[in-house]
Amino acid sequence: MFEHLLNGFAVALLPLNLLIALCGCLVGTLIGVLPGLGPTATLAMLIPLVFSMPPATALILLTSVYYGSMYGGSTTSILVNIPGESASVITTIDGHKMAMQGRAGPALAVAAIGSFIAGTFSVLMLTFVGAPIARYALLFGPAEFFALMVFGLCTVASLTGTNVTKSIISTCLGLMIATIGIDLVSGAARFTFGNPFLQDGVDFVVVAIGMFALTEVVITAREVHEGTRAQIVKAGKVWISWSEFLYSLPAILRGTVFGFVIGMLPGAGATLSTFIAYNLEKRVCRHPERLGTGDIRGVANPESANNAASGASLVPLLTLGLPGGGATAVMLGALMMLDITPGPLMFEKHGAIVWTLIASMYVGNTLLLLLNWPLVNVFARVMRIPAMYLMPTVLVISTIGVWSLSYSAVDLVLTGAAGLLGYYMRVNKYPVEPLILGLILGGRLEQAYRQALIISKGSNMIFLEKPISLVLLICAVLFLFLPMLLKRSKQYKAVAETAEAA
Amino acid sequence: MDIATRGSLRTRLEGLVILLVAGGYLWETFDIPDFYQLPDTPGPKTFPELLGLVFAFMGLWLLVSPADIMARIRAKGAGVAASVPPAAPAQESLLARLGIDGYFVALWVVVLAYLWFMPDVGFPVATFVLLFAFTWLLGEKRLHILFGLSLGVTAVVFFGFKYGLNVRLPLGVLDLLAS
Q1: What ipTM was reported for this prediction?
Q2: Where are the alpha helices (DSSP H) in A295-407?
Q3: What range(s) does the DUF1468 domain occupy (chain B) (predicted)?
Q4: Interface list for B 57-96 with A (CB within 8 A)
Q5: How many whole angstroms separate alpha carbon B9 and alpha carbon A501?
Q6: When comparing pLDDT for A433 and B1, which is higher?
Q7: Is B103 on the interface with A (CB under 8 A)?
């Protein structure tokens, strides 16, 4: 194995490939920073380019862009409270508060370090135990996936807001928006009101930009006008201190492990892993009341989970041919265009390419960290731009993110509607995050539900008969009602008070 | 009306709205055609029906607000009347209580008008107007800064996205002028 890996390094470290990896990381980071243009869109843009390249070089470009854009997505979450892609939604909670406190530099730095540690861990796992552990993903049938997604939604609903009822309403609303469009199984149009533009459904970016970007811009504008905007503390230091690193290290490690385990399940993706990892972190860490108030662990944990899941999603892709999410599905397409079919025989048939890919992931991770060292300084300066000039520009770039999805005026109108709804929700303490997660998972949740019922010939008992599904559903119920059970606990009260204040 | 009562009334109104939305959603579910549905298998209506019912239940929960009712019963049982002394009647209007003022409306009108008119008016003109109006609303009144900033940002974003990232941005009225 080591011989193969060394051969892989020999190819990945060729000057041309090294340059391609560096450019890929840089381009991925810069495009990932733009709201609405996440890893999937970035990779799709590059597909025509990789045709003319040798397979190894093409794969190096794709993986480095993938890593770069995953990291870039967190930058806007921290700086302007707008997630660059779905996996960065949870980073906004603590990341932006840190930036407002003048700690944008350490927040960006811990995101880079966490991403590096998690990325390296997931590549190590892919190298040594990728194939055996990929088989555990096969234990997950439709019933188990349904239970896993219900578990994910329940953990988020129970902890993102102080009122469980409001969180459940928010989740339901997200799931209901996800049912708009053509039903993939029967082909029936649902809730389209005869509008052909709604047949493809509502993209999560449309709603997320409305709820995060538009509301943020309007709220900031109002605060600037009324003179109530919290003064951004002048950044003290740009890089993270040693004590801050040690403080966030356990959160990074926990995020890495949770992210890897959940990210490896096909279809679960990086987004779900960040939500679950953050909520579990809130349960197990010391001083959970600090999370949500600009705590560095609140950035370190989801960012590590996000990158560990990105690496983990390559495990089922390479060993089973199953893409873990949108970005890996695009990568699968690119691999097949290069005449490489991922699957159980991938290591035997295309060993040289696979090992080059794995070696390039080590190189890509290291380059990303080296690249972000100076970039953190540049990005942190964005906070110094006065809100009156920054916010209108953010609004324009966010609008382009929505427009570029399908060049549809309907998407822009929906963004406006989502903005108004999001504003009402934020003002009245309805958490927005469960709605977004419901919208992202809705399609897959329904698909798994229906597949499970088809297998069981319509009996809902299938969810209780499968052991993994049963355990996950029990955990989901426990998580949902835990706030009621814990109401008298001092620790819970502290968390609730902090969340209320935040 | 004291703050607590106002909050509880708003919760009930939200519950009513949620219940109505759930009703409309469930009504619309009946219009979904069932194509080639096999017996004992879930169709395209199954999941939306389940969701609609859960959503309606949550709306009903807010409308009834059982915790609120229980608290009142307990307070009555303990012989405590309204513990909060009646506040002086507020003289502010309903819109002011909801935090809606002229400035707030102007902000949303500018944002929503941009989203609505951008595809027809074209990206360059609409963006220039948006940047000018929004920055002015945010307190920048110096005309040369407003003009320069709006023009500069519009040009950089337009050329950057159109030629750098191949995003098809509509020219709108500029296209008509050119032809």
Answers
A1: 0.83
A2: 297-312, 314-320, 326-337, 346-349, 351-380, 387-406
A3: 15-170
A4: 58-59, 61-62
A5: 23
A6: A433
A7: yes
